[in-house]
Amino acid sequence: MTPPTRSISIGLININQSGLTIAMMEKLAGLSRRGWSAQLIVIDNGSEQEDLNRLREWIDSHSASFADTDFTATGENLGASAGRNLILGRAEGQRILILDNDLVLDDEDAWLDRLWRDLDEDERLAIAGPTLVFAQYPDVIQAMGIGLTRLGRVGYLHRGDAVDTVPTTPVEVVASPAACWLMDGAIQREIGLFPEIYHPMQFWDVDYCMQLRAAGFGVLCDRRVRVKHIANVTTRSRGNREFARTAVRHGMIFRERWSDALAKLDTIDDVDIYWGPIPRP
Amino acid sequence: MERTEIERKVADAVSAAVGVKASTVQAESFKVSATGVFSSYALLELIIRLEEAFKVEIPDDHLEPDRFDTVGSIADYVEGRIAA
């Protein structure tokens, strides 16, 4: 049994996807039974009323499953980082679990227990993240952390590789996708909130990891831990012109902000970045 | 706008998008496609930089990599867009 001293704040964002969010919360509700003291923080980033009602109803009827629940409906889409900043402002746990609502979590808590221990073992670590695998293709890696090119372009490490062909040792990475972050609460308070200059999405998480690095903290990808992620639900809409342009513009801002650090970073090559179809042709 | 100024601005945009010095980019033999970083992402960054530098709009159906492979070919294209 997990010791009851593990106090964790879990943050979720919902936008018109109450089905996915509720499925996540169903899994998270089991944590208290396993000894976790879990504060659930849900931010609704401007859903339609029907979706909002479903979400509110679920949280109201399951509040006993958590040490505390906190639900905020913003009435508008504040964007990825500003929405999550509301989570940070409400988080009271020793550690903060930031999750996309399109993860498919295991019934057991072994994945979270492992990430928790990772942070226990090295106080310099600010974030521990898992290997993300495609929920539709759980034998294929979505990301084992994030690498950056010398121009600050993002690559998901090992994207498209088969899980049985990649290393399984924990490794420090430049950044980790914020789809699943276990963060140290004290370090988060020291560094501050997520940058909101990348509104509404993209690059805020990588920028935050760069801030952590600059302050001497580390980001770990525990490659032993696998979490399924339903790709492209949260933000991506392929072929969407504005999405692509926003992502590129934010990449330009990111490069401008971190050009000195990028020059000193152990970078990846553009040819190592694979954003093609899954499974790989 | 003079052709030389167009080429200088194009070279600056290409230089920033692919991370190569502007003086290198301006060489006649230079090809963007040979830099090894010319992904659809880099092409889109180049387009955004060109749009901002020349205050023109470049439609998505004009995004053919061959058209944006050398400073000369890009300058030809931009001149056409300015005149349009």
Question: What would the keywords be for this entry?
Answer:
heterodimer, A: 281 residues, alpha/beta, Spore Coat Polysaccharide Biosynthesis Protein SpsA, Chain A, ten-stranded mixed sheet, two-stranded antiparallel ribbon, 12 strands, 24% strand, globular, B: 84 residues, mainly alpha, Non-ribosomal Peptide Synthetase Peptidyl Carrier Protein, Chain A, 0% strand
How would you describe this structure to a colleague?
- The complex is a heterodimer of chains A (281) and B (84).
- Chain A has 281 residues and is an alpha/beta fold.
- Chain A folds into two domains: 1-101, Alpha-Beta Complex (Spore Coat Polysaccharide Biosynthesis Protein SpsA, Chain A); 104-275, Spore Coat Polysaccharide Biosynthesis Protein SpsA, Chain A (Alpha-Beta Complex), CATH 3.90.550.
- Chain A is built from seven helices and twelve strands.
- In chain A, strands 1, 2, 3, 4, 5, 6, 7, 10, 11 and 12 form a ten-stranded mixed sheet that branches. A two-stranded antiparallel ribbon of chain A has the order 8-9.
- Chain A is globular and about 50 Å long.
- Chain B has a single domain, classed as Non-ribosomal Peptide Synthetase Peptidyl Carrier Protein, Chain A (Orthogonal Bundle).
- In chain B, helix 1 (3-18) packs across helix 4.
- The chains are: A alpha/beta (281), B mainly alpha (84).
- The interface between A and B is medium-sized, with 15 and 11 residues.
Protein topology:
The complex is a heterodimer of chains A (281) and B (84).
Chain A: E1 7-14, H1 18-28, E2 37-44, H2 49-61, E3 68-73, H3 80-90, E4 95-99, E5 103-104, H4 110-121, E6 125-134, E7 141-143, E8 146-148, E9 154-156, E10 171-173, E11 180-184, H5 185-191, H6 204-214, E12 218-229, H7 241-264
Parallel strand pairs in A: 1-2, 1-4, 2-3, 6-12
Antiparallel strand pairs in A: 4-11, 5-12, 6-7, 6-11, 8-9, 10-12
Helix pairs in contact in A: 1-2
Chain B: H1 3-18, H2 22-25, H3 40-54, H4 71-83
